[in-house]
Amino acid sequence: MAVELLRSKENVETVNIVCSKIFDKPKDGSGVRSGFVANTVWAVISAIKPVVDVSEVVDNVIEACYGRRRGTIICSSDQADNYVYRFGKRTLDLCVATAVSLFLSWAIALIWIAVRLTSSGPAIFAQARVGENGRIFICYKFRTMHSGTRQAATHEISSSAVTPLGSWLRRTKLDELPQVWNVFRGDISFVGPRPCLPVQSELIEERMRRRVYAVKPGITGLAQINDIDMSHPGRLAEWDARYVALRSLWNDIRIMMLTILGRGKGDRTIAN
């Protein structure tokens, strides 16, 4: 609220610096604070919750003071080099994907049959999406629209294109179940920026500018549980970048739980 109030003032330039938990990185030759054990401890801590080294905070403050950074600056140590986080996230993905495959295989089979019986066309919908580092991959979902619907972003499609069963599947998010296969393949994670179509050039450009494609896309994400869909490319990319900056195992678990509890309405179609 304070940030929005300052931004509304004329002739007042603001820079908002958001900090994770601040720590002082272990130094060589500093006794108990140095060495492999200390570094491993901090790797574990930062994998669970976002943290930032005090030197990074200082650098960001200096950058803001000299006008080299604008808007909101999120101070958090990058997880790209955190082997504990990378291992933990992949392990979490595989464990959840295995659990879904074992315990919800009956639901997947029933939904497959229901889709085939209630509308013409295949039950599984395969579509090209943009993944990590801009790589194109094939994403699998239960078909929720009538066969022959044009290839476009959901917010550009009329709601009449959605089948009655598809509307329920999208509302309950059960249409995402086949993406478990994408998780096993390593195309996506359970949590991350939602993958877009290759034709969504504006969103791709906004995400590239904010380095969102440095991480794997996800079935659900921070933007989705805050009801931000792909109809607002710039705003969506900002929230995706916020997730990238603050990603941690705890945040991933939290986003998954909120999704299961019904947070987020999914991408909206055009009303008839």
From TrEMBL:
Coiled-coil residues are none
**In this protein, which residues make up the domain named Bacterial sugar transferase?**
89-260
Entries under Pfam families matching the protein: Bac_transf (PF02397)
Show the stretches that span the lipid bilayer.
94-115
Q: Return the similarity comment.
A: Belongs to the bacterial sugar transferase family.
PANTHER family, alphabetized: COLANIC BIOSYNTHESIS UDP-GLUCOSE LIPID CARRIER TRANSFERASE, SLL5057 PROTEIN
Q: Which domain of life is it from?
A: Bacteria
Query: What keywords were assigned to this record?
Result: Exopolysaccharide synthesis, Membrane, Transferase, Transmembrane, Transmembrane helix
Could you provide one GO biological process annotation from this protein's UniProt record? polysaccharide biosynthetic process
Q: Which organism is it from?
A: Allosphingosinicella humi
> This protein is called what?
Sugar transferase
Task: Determine if Cell membrane is one of this entry's keywords.
Answer: no
Q: Name one GO molecular function term.
A: phosphotransferase activity, for other substituted phosphate groups
